[in-house]
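Predict fold of Tektin; 103 aa.
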Amino acid sequence: EKSLKNKKPANVLAAQKAIDAMKAIDIWEMQARNQELKGNDAPSLGGLTEDAAQILKERLAERQPCITRLREIEAQVARCMDIAEDTRQAILRGDQVCTKPNT
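Predicted 3D structure, encoded as tokens:
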């Protein structure tokens, strides 16, 4: 009877394993974010279990298109800011500005 109480069911063990993996992923993501904000590379996935590493790889793959799109938008905004500054300087100089109406 004592040995039965000490043994955990398989579903409890699997759930505990999943919880431990999620905790490890959360810690890795916090460390990665801190490193990236400092301009460094993210830590390696070597310290994670195989399950946690697989889950994290899937998450990172899902995020990549969003990250790429945000970088594109950031570049577009930077170009718009440059054009706006050039236009501002031209106005301050009194340059003749010719705009085409949208017709």
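The helical segments are 2-6, 10-37, 50-93.
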